[in-house]
Write a structure and sequence with these properties.
The complex is a heterodimer of chains A (95) and B (450). Chain A is 74% helix and 0% strand. Chain A has 95 residues and is an all-alpha fold. Chain B is built from 17 helices and six strands. The chains are: A mainly alpha (95), B alpha/beta (450). At the A-B interface, helix 1, helix 2, helix 3 and helix 4 of A face helix 1, helix 2, helix 3, helix 4 and helix 8 of B.
């Protein structure tokens, strides 16, 4: 059985290369929405935070998890909304 | 159930990737953002099904509080304030990863888990305070000038060594939480120390780098709690930030190390020879030149954002076009305070995105341009970068506005710019200075056209 860390490192390596390929294709005109969109994606920590915030232990880890849930939610909700607001403004002139 | 959750994460990773792929063109970008958001929603919903969750009140409270704040910020923030908002969000992301890493410590944790905990706490902590300082500088709550003091390098080296020492001690002795608190405290201090020596004009590099760190912190937290989707999403963000950092450094012809460790403007041996005299022009005369022009290029810089001039610029563009003139915009990668800053402002003013040309696209066309209007840009149009080897920005790729037949420079006064670098452009034969507030000057031109 391959240890979990090796498996996770494998995923890390592949996603870094994939990330480079994908982001290199984003045109300069979209770099600001790309960054705010990246803000939103980095809110993925929310997924890890919910399991820590829901243990019902009322201990330190529980409180830390709850704080992380709130912070990550700001990023997820705020990041996607502001990116959408920006991208809605990028228009091509008709005709 | 656990297998089902893992499969759902695979789907949401695919949605993130598809979303980023669609960001490759302005025409599909909005759809891409929605795809990415649906991937996030899926990941969050399945995470809530986790069997380890026995009570939901903290989660619901956290999501509500965070969601309301996030939504309010997203609705209210001005487009000119986008750099400081992104900086602040980078910081929140970092702090969230710090807390997750911290909470992941269990008495049973093995050494590898402890190392990843330290990494997420460390990267998360320095991202948090570094981003707060960047936010302060960008929003001008604190002075944007580089903060340098004697022995700074030594102090920073000592902090790094202490971080390493306490990190190793924590991994060896995880039951003693003093070591962890020491790592957290030092990481927070280091974030501050790393960003204070960096000047306002270098902020595009710093927020790109912090953007990358916020992703890497999420990645490290993913290792600490053994979660695939955090690693995939975190490394996508990390890669994105690093690419933007590279683009910004290349556009300034400086290495990342140079940006991070030397305050800009500390170089003072600038012996650039400036010949000729400054030739001011009145709004009336500028109007006659523009009225006769058939090809105009507009080159905006941070000054356009400060003057909030993007809407009047668009009005002028429409009047010129009605007059049978071709209008394009030339945008330098480091114009403004973050990557793509100018494009967003002009998009807000309803400028068509196919008129926003990158530096490499506008430069070959410059010879055919009758009038090039420079609005609040300075270093990115400085011909000394090509001509004067003693200039601190020698070698930096610039927009060759001086190759146009006539150049109008809209500027408040002759006071030297942020970096205090001489700009021979102002003294060139074909340059005319239109002094005054950019918004008012353009307003004056618009009135002449009407």
């Amino acid at each position: 059985m391959v240890p979990a860390e090796v498996f996770l490192t494998f995923i890390l390596m592949l996603s870094i290369f994939l990330g480079f390929e994908l982001i290199n294709k984003v045109p300069a005109t979209l770099h600001t929405p790309l960054m705010s969109g990246a803000n939103a994606i980095s809110g993925i920590t929310l997924v890890g935070a919910v399991s820590l915030a829901g243990t019902g232990q009322q201990d330190l880890a529980n409180w830390l998890g709850a704080g992380a849930v709130a912070l990550a939610s700001i990023n997820v909700v705020g990041g996607y909304m502001v990116t959408d607001r920006m991208l809605a403004m990028f228009k091509k002139k008709e005709g | 159930m656990a297998t089902l959750i893992q499969f759902a994460y695979v789907v949401s990773a695919a949605l993130f990737i598809l979303g980023l792929k669609n960001l490759g063109s302005p025409a599909t970008a909005r759809k891409g953002n929605l795809i990415s958001a649906s991937g996030m929603l899926l990941a969050i919903v399945v995470a809530l099904l986790d069997q380890g969750i026995v009570e939901y009140q903290f989660i619901i409270l956290g999501i509500l509080v965070g969601g309301v704040i996030g939504a309010a910020v997203a609705r209210l923030v001005a487009m000119t304030a986008m750099p400081e908002m992104v900086a602040l969000f980078n910081g929140f992301g970092g702090l969230a990863s710090l807390l997750v890493g911290w909470a992941a410590i269990t008495p049973l944790a093995g050494t590898i888990t402890l190392v990843t905990v330290v990494l997420s706490v460390l990267i998360g902590g320095l991202t948090f305070t570094g981003s707060l300082i960047a936010y302060g500088k960008l929003s001008e709550v604190i002075d944007g000038k580089p903060v340098m003091f004697k022995g700074q390098q030594i102090v920073n080296s000592l902090i790094v060594l202490s971080i390493l020492g306490s990190a190793v001690m924590f991994c060896l002795e995880p039951s003693n939480s003093q070591w962890l608190y020491l790592v957290i405290g030092l990481a927070l201090v280091f974030g501050v120390m790393a960003v204070i020596p960096i000047g306002g004009a270098d902020m595009p590099v710093v927020i790109s780098l912090l953007n990358s760190y916020s992703g890497l912190a999420a990645c490290a937290a993913g290792f600490a709690i053994n979660n695939n989707i955090l690693i995939v999403a975190g490394s996508l963000v990390g890669a994105s930030g690093i690419i933007l950092t590279q683009i910004m450094c290349k556009a300034m012809n400086r290495s990342l190390g140079n940006v991070l460790f030397s305050g800009f403007g500390s170089v003072t041996d600038d012996t650039t020879e400036v010949e000729g005299e400054v030739k001011p022009i009145s709004v009336d005369d500028a109007y006659y030149v523009l009225e006769a022009a058939s090809n105009v290029a507009i080159v905006p810089g941070y000054g356009m954002a400060v003057a909030q001039a993007q809407h009047v610029v668009k009005e002028l563009q429409e009047l010129l076009e009605q007059n049978g003139c071709e209008v394009n915009y030339g945008i330098h990668p480091v114009a403004g305070r973050m990557p793509g800053h100018m494009n967003v402002l002009l998009a807000e003013a309803d400028v068509s995105y196919d008129q926003l040309l990158e530096m490499d696209d506008i430069n070959p066309r410059m010879e055919n341009v009758d009038v090039c209007i420079v609005i609040g840009a300075n270093d990115v149009v400085n011909p000394a970068a090509r001509e004067s080897e003693s200039s601190p920005i020698y070698g930096m790729p610039v927009i060759n506005v001086d190759h146009a037949r006539t150049v109008f420079v809209l500027k408040r006064s002759m006071a030297s710019g942020f970096a205090g670098i001489e700009n021979p452009l102002f003294y060139k034969e074909n340059t005319r200075m239109l002094f005054g507030d950019a918004k008012e000057s353009i307003g004056g031109l618009i009135r002449e056209f009407e």
